[in-house]
């Protein structure tokens, strides 16, 4: 955080918000997957398949976080919130 947020263009801002929305969607899906895993049993074949999907969602969320950091969107958003 110790550096100034750079200005982002409209495309970069839209992409940042799209990534946040994707992360929110994946998070909701993971909640559903967890409920399904509990219902079928984590060690069942279906439970193992759901675990693999959940792990894939976690990797996607990690990729989103990384992209938000490297694009400068997180710093930009923090700066916007502090300016309000």
Write a concise keyword list for the protein shown above.
mainly alpha, 84 residues, 3 helices, 82% helix, single chain
Describe the structure.
There is one protein chain. The protein is mainly α and 84 residues long. It is 82% helix and 0% strand. Helix 1 (10-40) runs antiparallel to helix 2 (45-71).
Helix and strand arrangement:
Layout: H1 10-40, H2 45-71, H3 73-83
The helical percent reads over 70%
From the spread of the alpha carbons, the general shape counts as elongated
Series of secondary-structure elements, N-terminal to C-terminal:
HHH
Rounded to the nearest angstrom, the distance between the terminal CA atoms is 18 Å
Summarize the biggest pleated sheet: none
How many helices in DSSP terms? Answer: 3
Count every beta strand, where a strand is a DSSP E run of 2 or more residues.
0
Structural class: mainly alpha
**Strand coverage percent:** under 5%
Question: What does the average pLDDT come to?
Answer: 92
Low-confidence stretches: none
Radius of gyration: 17 Å
Short recap of the structure:
The protein has 84 residues and is an all-alpha fold.
């Amino acid at each position: 955080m110790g550096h100034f947020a750079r200005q982002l263009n409209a495309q970069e801002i839209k992409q940042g918000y799209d990534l946040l929305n994707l992360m929110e969607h994946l998070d909701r899906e993971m909640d559903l997957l967890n409920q399904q895993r509990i219902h079928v049993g984590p060690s069942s074949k279906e439970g193992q398949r759901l675990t693999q999907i959940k792990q894939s969602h976690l990797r996607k969320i990690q990729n989103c976080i990384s992209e938000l950091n490297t694009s400068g969107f997180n710093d930009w958003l923090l700066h916007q919130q502090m300016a309000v």
